Amino acid sequence: GTFTDAAGAMACRPCLAGGTSLEGSSECTPCPTGTVLPVGGVVCVCAVGSSPAPLGTDGAAAGGVCVPCAPGTYKVVEGDGGCVACPAGMSSAAGSGSPPACGGPPG
Length: 107
Prior knowledge:
- By secondary structure, the chain is an all-beta fold.
- It has strands at residues 2-3, 13-14, 19-20, 29-30, 35-36, 45-46, 50-52, 66-68, 73-74, 84-85.
- It has no helices and 10 strands.
- Strands 1-2 form a two-stranded antiparallel sheet. Strands 3-4 form a two-stranded antiparallel sheet.
């Protein structure tokens, strides 16, 4: 979460909001689409309404790839947890994350 762009610098500067860096970096990189940098965090995690891509999908093996929750599922917290199914008889749009995430009958 910090970087230095000056040789011999005594201190590192923090990355701007939504950016991260590896140890010894000379620049910050933005978090990938579908991810956020939690307050005080140094690693990007899946945003509300998205979860880690299933293993075997493009880029999932490398980590850091998040996909929107499928219709009928939701996730209301940041992190690498999975999406949760709506209660029986309820539905949600793809990428749902804001309460109330699940609504009326599937349509």
